[in-house]
Specification:
Order of helices and strands of chain B: EEEEEEEEEEEE
Structural class of chain B: mainly beta
Number of strands of chain A: 11
Oligomer: heterodimer
Number of strands of chain B: 12
Strand content of chain B: over 45%
Structural class of chain A: mainly beta
Radius of gyration of chain B: 14 Å
Order of helices and strands of chain A: EEEEEEEEEEE
């Protein structure tokens, strides 16, 4: 089945630790996105990538880093510089050249700080 | 920059009744897309309905329809014959028409509960 997978479902981070959230898609989509969701907030864009080996900062990129070495994969690293990382993280993808097409979302990763 | 506002944090509807969720947005663009997403307790984001700004006709998907008022920058979602499975958070979202900048801007969401 085509879709987007995110792992792990739950992730625990210790103080000062970097952690990486995985996002994989087999939809052959060009563009991929990372969003952060906090209670009472809508989704906020962290980073996005339109093609392999290229990515742009979103609205809240500080304390995060990404890579796009393969079309199918767009991992997000939450660094120790992110002082309030507890949130729900959603990955999405879409065909870049299909303007009217919506983004498809993965099931999300819940990150908690110990 | 575009903004999306959902001013009602919570709403409740009786099963089989109709409910309308409100959304307003601010933009200087003339061409854009608007979306309603549903997020059930599983937290999976599901597209409910989409509206292209250049289309005057309101979008409809089965029990879901929108009232798109471009001049007023309003985009409300009507759910008819509400079902227990409709209970979820609903997010309104905006996207520019230009493909090179296809990021979504979301409202804060509204929690809809359905009473049996």
């Amino acid at each position: 089945d085509g879709g987007i997978t995110q792992s792990p479902k739950y992730l625990f981070r210790k103080e000062g630790q970097n952690v990486t959230l995985s996002c994989e898609q087999n939809l052959n989509h060009d563009a991929m996105y990372w969003y952060r969701q906090d209670p009472g907030q809508g989704l906020r864009l962290i980073y996005y990538s339109q093609i392999v080996n290229d990515f742009q900062k979103g609205d809240i990129a500080e304390g995060y880093s990404v890579s796009r070495e393969k079309k199918e994969s767009f991992p997000l690293t939450v660094t120790s510089a992110q002082k309030n990382p507890t949130a729900f993280y959603l990955c999405a993808s879409k065909n870049f050249d299909r303007v009217g097409e919506t983004q498809y979302f993965g099931p999300g990763t819940r990150l908690l700080v110990l | 920059a575009q903004t999306v506002t959902q001013s009602q944090p919570e709403m409740s509807v009786q099963e089989a009744e109709t409910v309308t969720l409100s959304c307003t947005y601010d933009t200087s663009e003339s061409d854009y897309y608007l979306f309603w997403y549903k997020q059930p307790p599983s937290r999976q984001m599901i597209l409910v309905i989409r509206q292209e700004a250049y289309k005057q006709q309101n979008a409809t998907e089965n029990r879901f329809s929108v009232n798109f008022q471009k001049a007023a920058k309003s985009f409300s979602l009507k759910i008819s014959d509400s079902q227990l499975g409709d209970a979820a958070m609903y997010f309104c979202a905006y996207r520019s028409y230009t493909g090179a900048n296809s990021k979504l801007t979301f409202g804060k969401g509204i929690t809809l509960s359905v009473r049996p």
